[in-house]
Automatic annotation (TrEMBL):
<dbReference type="InterPro" id="IPR023393">
    <property type="entry name" value="START-like_dom_sf"/>
</dbReference>
<protein>
    <submittedName>
        <fullName>Uncharacterized protein YndB with AHSA1/START domain</fullName>
    </submittedName>
</protein>
<dbReference type="Pfam" id="PF08327">
    <property type="entry name" value="AHSA1"/>
</dbReference>
<feature type="domain" description="Activator of Hsp90 ATPase homologue 1/2-like C-terminal">
    <location>
        <begin position="20"/>
        <end position="148"/>
    </location>
</feature>
<dbReference type="InterPro" id="IPR013538">
    <property type="entry name" value="ASHA1/2-like_C"/>
</dbReference>
<comment type="similarity">
    <text>Belongs to the AHA1 family.</text>
</comment>
Length: 151
């Protein structure tokens, strides 16, 4: 399956991807540390700290090529298994915080995850796109495909 990425405005980016799994399982893979460790960060070794509740914090550290990449955020809304909203910040770029809204929809046993990312500025959106975010997201979702096939 292919990741669909669209820029809706100077500060809004939407990604969607469909998985061959029911919504409850795909939602769990996005919200439970024991699942996230298998696919987030392109499937590289991942440290996961998370308190999945409104106001709870999360922090993931991906270990790749001898380097650590740390990300963090806070959960703003949860409507399990239909979706959740959180903030997202790459720690080396502290202060450039975006909001991500995840929506999970199921049809015929397949789940589409649509993520709407709202950036503080056009420069932040351009910086994220320029960082190779789309390739990284596709690699992570390919790792999720592989993981879902094992469950």
């Amino acid at each position: 399956m292919t990741l669909n990425v669209q820029t809706l405005s100077d500060t809004t980016l939407v990604m969607s991807r469909t998985f061959n799994a029911p919504r409850e399982l795909v939602f769990a893979c996005h919200t439970q540390p024991e699942h996230l460790r298998h696919w987030w960060g392109r499937g590289n070794p991942l440290d996961v700290e998370m308190d999945f509740r409104v106001g709870g914090k999360w922090r993931f550290v991906e270990h790749a090529d001898g380097t650590e990449h740390a990300f963090r955020g806070e959960y703003r809304a949860i409507d399990a298994p239909r979706g959740f909203t959180c903030t997202f910040e790459y720690e080396p770029m502290a202060g450039h915080i975006l909001t991500e809204q995840y929506v999970f929809t199921e049809e015929d046993g397949r789940t589409t995850v649509t993520t709407t990312s709202t950036f503080a500025s056009k420069e932040d959106l351009d910086g994220m796109v320029g960082s190779g975010m789309e390739v990284g997201a596709e690699q992570s979702y390919a790792a999720l495909d592989d993981y879902l096939a094992k469950l």
